[in-house]
Amino acid sequence: SDGKFVLSCGNQSLWERLCRQVLNCPELIEKPHYADNAHRLEHNAELMHIISEWTANKSVADCIRECSDAGLPCAPVWDLKQVYNSGFYREERRMFITVPTPADTLAQPIVFGSHPRRLRFPPPRLGQHTDEILRQKLGITQNTIDAYRRMGVIK
To answer: From the CB of residue 5, how many other CB atoms can be counted at a distance below 10 Å?
Structure first.
């Protein structure tokens, strides 16, 4: 496979669909150690091996399509770069907000009704609050902070 995806078969019906329609292994349904969720969890390593063999020569997109066609809940697992470049999250969900910093930032993922996503304050710049925190929260003097900065301990 060319990446990772998540697949959920949390009930008997989904498990049976996975076995019959996706893995083409209906005999797994009858095996006692896969009889129910509790037994499948006990034998998770074996099941992961079976599923890994099925995914070995497939793309994530193919796995998602086959599982989705069988009505199984599944989705790709993306890194932040993939999420950032996704038309779905960028345009449709508007999950990124342009702020006056070197990079966009993630928006609040929950939207209530027609309330727009907005950011009241941009994220702090690297080191923006360092002196303030060291002085006020840790009681470090400005002379010590300056010495730390000269030594490269802080920026």
So the answer is: 17
Q: Which two tokens stand for residue 137?
A: 């929260």
Tokens of 115: 């309330």
Length in residues, the chain: 155
> Parallel, antiparallel, or unpaired: how do β-strands 74-77 and 4-7 relate?
antiparallel
Residue 26 token pair: 């209906």
Q: Contact 108/117 with Cβ under 8 angstroms? A: yes
Give the pair of three-digit tokens for residue 93: 């969900």
The owner of tokens 């349904």 is: 29
Is residue 24 helix, strand or coil?
A: coil
The pLDDT tens digits of the residues spanning 51-109 come to 999 999 999 999 999 999 999 999 999 988 888 888 888 777 777 777 776 667 666 66
Q: Which long-range contacts (CB under 8 A, 24 or more apart) does 97-102 make?
A: 99/123, 101/125
Q: How far apart are CA 81 and CA 96, in angstroms?
A: 12
Inter-residue contact 142 to 132 (CB < 8 Å): no
pLDDT per residue as tens digits for the range 110-130: 777 777 767 777 778 888 999
